[in-house]
Amino acid sequence: MRTHAIAAELPDAGALLRAARIIRAAGVRHWDVYSPYPIAGMDEAMGLTASPLGRLAFFGGLAGFLGATSLQFATTAFLYPLDAGGMPNGIQSLPVLFPIIFESTILAAALITVFGMFLLSRLPRLHHPLFDWHRFRGVSNDKFFLVLETGDPNYSEQALRELLASCGGAQISPVYEDE
Amino acid sequence: MTANEPPPYTADAVTEHVCSIIETAAPRWWWLAICVTGSMTALCFLCLLYLVSTGVGVWGNNNATGWAWDVTNFVFWIGIGHAGTLISAVLFLSRQRWRTPIHRAAEAMTLFAVICAAIYPALHLGRAWMVWFMPPIPNSNAIWPNFRSPLQWDMFAIGTYFTVSFLFWYTGLIPDLATVRDRCRGKIRKVIYGFLALGWRGGNRQWRHFAAAYLLLAGLSTPLVLSVHSVVSCDFAVTVVPGWHTTLFPPYFVAGAIFGGFAMVLTILIPVRALYPPLQGLVSTFHVDKMCKVLLLTGSLIGYCYAIELFTVWYGGNPWEQSAFRERIFGPYGWAFASMVFCNVLVPQLFWFQAARSHLLWVWVIVQFPNVGMWLERFVIVTGTLTRGFLPSSWGRFDPTWVDICTFAGTFGLFAFLFLLFVRWLPMICMFEVKADAADAQTEATL
Fold first, then answer.
1. What ipTM was reported for this prediction?
2. How confident is the model at residue B447 (pLDDT cuts 50, 70, 90)?
3. What's the first-to-final CA gap in chain B, in angstroms?
4. Contact: A123, B202; criterion CB under 8 Å
5. B345, B302 in Cβ contact below 8 A?
6. What domains sit in chain B, N to C, each tagged with a CATH number?
7. pTM here?
8. Could you tell me which of A63, A176, A52 has the C-alpha nearest to residue A121?
9. Is B205 within 8 Å of A118 when comparing Cβ atoms?
């Protein structure tokens, strides 16, 4: 069986944060920390930049805004001008078009946020080699794990094990690829 | 002196307490409650079937009162939902840690209340099967909806509100569904929860996008929740009917919605907490105390709105408006107006006293007044106004029929039915946030 990664358990969030700084300094290529809740300061410790979701949501909102605006103008002014309550059909009726423009902006931004989050965090992915590691199910309860993937030319499996031990990892064990 | 925040649980205890509800057999009261509420839901749908097969005339709506209980109940239910979004989004952005153990259940109430609400406008159309004319779908008749109509605004506002609330709720559920998935033993359960959890692993490379999405959704939901009831209030405010045509309506409706929603959250949470002892350490008198204070604040805001509404009518000097309000207070529905002021403005003032906030039975009894009062407010606004329009020749009165009453009772059944299913199958408390808060509290204590 091919090894996917070497995993280790850490006692708490603080230890995981310290370990993440060490791993980052060591320059391991593919690795991640696993925890039951998001840990404050972990992004900086791992050297991750801010999530691009904010920008995505902005463009989603912009698309919703432009879509709703053009749809309403196209239909009320050109495609199907309707005399309702003597209200004008052109640009003058902008104020009554606001509610739908606003709601569509929010809707599109929210949809892009959620599906963008799925895309960026590679969800749904129902199976992963980590799920076969018997200790891993504790992560959703109260366990903290540090997982270094193998295949890094600078680090052999043995080197990864030593690295994990040096930052306080316990229960160091291999995680196997699926057959 | 106020109630103290309960001591934090260990992460394992949080998981154990919350998941035990899903993993143990349903208690006897649950089966009893699901049978009762299920029957009420069936009653609701039978009434709707009768309505669709016979016509809108089976409701008590008449020539003067084209909007009656349908619109009253629609606004009532939509309002209930607002507390959930307020707790999940606004209190999240303002870093109110006390929201953590209650927001999941409150968000679920939002979804179920919107479902109950959506029944009414769709069926009030009269020909419910024509509801597809409302979304802007290109069709062979080349007909487009009138985007300047408040009914159209409603569809977009409610549709967006439901979708965004659902996405927010489901996004927050994913890590907790993973917890349930990792604990379950049965094959079928494992497959179902496994699918729902989408393969969540809890790596920081997932958490960072998750946290960003959660923050963004909270930021998007905040203006959304304010807009939804504002749009609903525009159903009234953009008409020329005296008593409705006022710019006060949007903030007045939003304050009322939050008030009524919190009352409903307390109405449901206090018994649920009593029935599930594992939850009592997580949802304590501390949280109830905070919610009572929100009720006191919003109840007083509503009192201010009632007062400023009357002041504007007097100061504006419009005889039609003045006549409408004279009829509202002294007319045939004067009893409803007086009860509304008593329930919404006077009774919540009891929450100034700590004794009233800390005794759960008392709190439960007191919050029934806002529940009734907020329904009466919408009844007064809708029916009280329509039965006294511009023309005395079209003055009349409105009496509900048995279909009106059974449908409304049935929506309560539907709401409770859905909530009971939620309690049974999904983690009622946001476990990962409770754990994170406990860890934060520990860090603060050691600093």
1. 0.93
2. low
3. 26
4. no
5. yes
6. 26-138+150-437 (1.20.1630.10)
7. 0.92
8. A52
9. no
